[in-house]
Amino acid sequence: MRTTESSVDGARLTMTQIEAPEHYGLAVSPLAQPVALTSMTYAKTLASGEQLSFGMNANPNYVLGFAHTPFESTGFMADKAFANPYLGFNGYQNFAGYGMPLNNHWSVSAGAVSSFDPLAMQGENAIALTGQEYNKLNTSTQTGLLELSGRWKDSKVAVSMGLANEEESLLGGSPGTYFGINDATKTWFMSISAAKQLTADTWLAGSFSYGNSSSGRQSNSLVTSVDSVNSQSWSLGLMTSNLLRKEDRFGIAVSQPMAVNSGKLDMTVPSGMSEEGIMQYENRSVSLAPKDLEYDFELNYYTPISSSSSLSIAGMYRMNPGHDSNTEDQKILALRWQKFF
Mind listing the pLDDT tens digit for each residue in 287-300? Predict the structure, then answer.
């Protein structure tokens, strides 16, 4: 995988590419391309201060929220902890945005985010699915939002509001056929993020997001109704640079991934069989709010080794993974060495 970034005349372009498998001695289809583009982001600031941006299979945090702060791209394993969770229900995020300055410090931005992944339509992937099948799998979420942000030399604050429209899903989850919901789940959300520079090399940041979702049921589903669903998430982090070596970076973060805090499903479920052999049903309500919440704790250290290589070490502790205390806590240690050619 190769990531390149270039900046010129107020424009910044970042691309990530991956080489074809045969470059690593693996069998590959003759339809595969030598190099495939996996993600791309572009932002252009005009002379008037207006900003145009778009991205494919990328993180909208590049131009929203913590953009232009060290938390724009943290390097944490839980990197999405510092991104708006309602913009990334699934892995593919493609966005376009427009920003306009209000004065020297404040600006307003409008953006649209979609889960469609045009970069997957390369080589043999282009014939793997029909157009109808491909669109069904890759257009599950469309989101629009407005963001008001203030930026100063040593701080930034951003408040965003928007609407996410999901197809056959609820907050990124797919209940399945018998517990299915309809294809019009709407989530109104609000997100607040703030970053403050404490010293020349140290930044503190935090974020909070809240959403309200409403949906219906499919005709063949056991679900009879879906109550209003409220969800939220938060994160807090500290990053400092030039700690042990020049241009190194150390970070610590604690976060609660998005979780439902109120809401329920009403269902009609089989309860038994009558003496006449007729199936009997009863109504039940199931809470969507977990009894336990997941909390993630992470330490991360990055340092350049040379002008063309770097080393990253990260440790992560997940308490109640998946918001389930019956799941054993997870301890993760990662070591990454990167060499640029």
Answer: 888 999 999 999 99
Please report the DSSP string for 99-118 in residue order. Answer: EEESSSSEEEEEEEEE---G
Beta bridge partners of 188: 163, 212
Other Cβ atoms within 10 Å of 79 Cβ, number: 16
Contact 238, 199 (CB under 8 A): no
> Rounded to a whole number, what is the distance in angstroms from the first to the last CA of the chain?
11
What would the two tokens of residue 289 be?
Answer: 């709010």
The predicted structure's pLDDT at residue 85 = 86
DSSP code for 80: G
Query: Domain map of the chain by residue range?
Result: 2-339
The C-alpha atoms of residue 145 and residue 162 are separated, in whole angstroms, by 4
Class of domain 2-339: mainly beta
pLDDT tens profile 153-168? 999 999 999 999 887 7
Decide the pairing of beta strands 141-152 and 106-114: antiparallel
Angstrom CA distances, 198 to 195, 245, 276, stand at 10, 19, 75
How do residues 184-205 score in pLDDT, each as one tens digit?
A: 788 999 999 999 999 999 999 9
Per-residue model confidence (pLDDT) at position 222: 67
